[in-house]
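Weekly modeling sync, notes
Attendees: AB, CL, MP (scribe)

Item 1: holo prediction request
CL wants a bound-state model with protoporphyrin IX containing FE before deciding which constructs to order. AB pointed out that an apo prediction alone won't tell us much about the pocket. Agreed to run with the ligand included and paste results into these notes for async review.

Input as submitted:
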Amino acid sequence: MADMAQRIGLRPTTLTDRFPPPGGRYTAIAQALHWIVALLFIAQVVIAWTLVVRAEGDPAAAFWLTLHKSIGVTILALVAVRLAWRASHPAPPLPPRMPLWEKLLARVNHWVLYAILLVMPISGYLASAASGHTVHYFWLFDLPNLPQSRELAHNAIVVHGVGQWFIYAAVVLHLSGTAWNLVVRRDGSLSRMLPEQSEA
Ligand code: HEM
Ligand code: HEM
């Protein structure tokens, strides 16, 4: 199957590393941070959706809200570390055969993802801290509140609510691009974000 695919000019989809990405991989630290943030992000959105459909006064809501806030602050910290790491360890080049417009789209998509991964937790924190709803970080310690401002809290929660649609769009584009490169292009893009695989 692999030989046949090669003969007709396709790279076989394989879990082994017979076709390592030509431009190299993200560093192990960058990969670990990417997958941890991706998992936390999925948990975060699922928790948020269950939160907003809970009945008012539901005692479990406080638990899930504290969890949502704590995971969100953790994402903010991890994204800050990730950006600092990226500044000293640049991303490997995109596959050379990728058309310029796709490379541009991928880069813009990545920066939009980073931007929203900062905007969402910062707006969430501002909304909480400016309205006196202290953030109890995983029930361990409290983050500081800000001077009370209904206007700031209101604007921040609007940004938080609208921001979610940008992140859904960016993640859908990100996953579609990854799936396209994996299944159609077979250019080793996904391997850039995975550890080296053995032939065994
Ligand atoms: C990457 C991080 C985050 C993401 C993706 C995220 C996402 C969301 C989403 C999708 C909602 C539901 C919005 C709606 O439909 O009305 C929400 C609500 C909310 N989030 Fe976040 N959030 C994040 C971080 C935070 C942080 C750090 C805080 C506070 C410290 C926070 C506080 C809130 C609050 C107070 C609500 C309103 C809950 C309610 O309506 O009962 N979020 N968030
Ligand atoms: C199953 C889910 C996911 C897969 C398979 C995946 C795959 C990848 C791959 C292969 C890359 C390497 C660059 C590329 O070719 O595009 C990448 C980069 C990236 N991913 Fe994901 N990803 C997933 C989920 C997410 C989520 C949920 C987020 C954020 C909410 C995210 C944010 C990013 C960012 C910001 C980069 C750019 C890294 C950099 O250049 O510094 N990813 N992802």
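Recorded for review: The mean pLDDT is 89.
Action items: CL to compare against the apo run; MP to circulate these notes.
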